[in-house]
Design goal:
It is a single chain. By secondary structure, this protein is α+β, with helices and mostly antiparallel strands. The protein has a single domain, classed as Orthogonal Bundle (Arc Repressor Mutant, subunit A). It is 31% helix and 12% strand. It has four helices and four strands. The protein has a four-stranded antiparallel beta sheet. The chain is globular, with a radius of gyration of 18 Å. It starts with a helix and ends in a 34-residue tail after the last strand.
């Protein structure tokens, strides 16, 4: 499975407590410390992603078009999300919210549009142009 498909399966699964849909189903919520332990800390055949680094995982989110969202101070109305927020606050942990228009709980068919961004390599501003000969 590619990265967005693995992420979708995790968010939909009851197996992981560190990642879930936001109340509206348009964002992915991640309890950063628990995610490091529960997902990135896995070894061997239980390993989910090729990386064990949170920084690399977040880079993958960005490469697939996810953007970090700031959570408003309004508390969540859904009980599971509210309880997760409460647990994170009491443990001084951070919950990260990421949004991608093609990653939506109500529209799983959009997942196929969730592609890795391909960018041009940047050239130093004062680097000379290459001669094609």
């Amino acid at each position: 499975l590619c990265f967005p498909q693995k992420l979708w399966k995790m968010v939909e699964s009851d197996q992981f407590q560190s990642i879930w849909w936001s109340e509206c189903g348009k964002c992915v919520a991640i309890d950063e410390e628990l995610f490091k332990e529960e997902v990135l800390g896995r070894r061997g055949p239980l390993r989910v992603f090729a990386t064990q680094s949170m920084k690399s995982f977040l880079r993958q989110l960005n490469l697939y078009g996810f953007t970090k969202m700031q959570k408003s101070f309004r508390r969540s109305a859904s009980l599971p999300e509210f309880l997760a927020e409460e647990a994170a606050i009491s443990a001084h942990r951070q919950i990260l919210y990421y949004y991608n228009p093609s990653f939506n709980r109500e529209h799983p068919h959009l997942l196929e549009k969730c592609k890795r961004r391909v960018g041009l390599k940047r050239r130093a501003p004062d680097a000379p142009e290459m001669d094609e000969r």
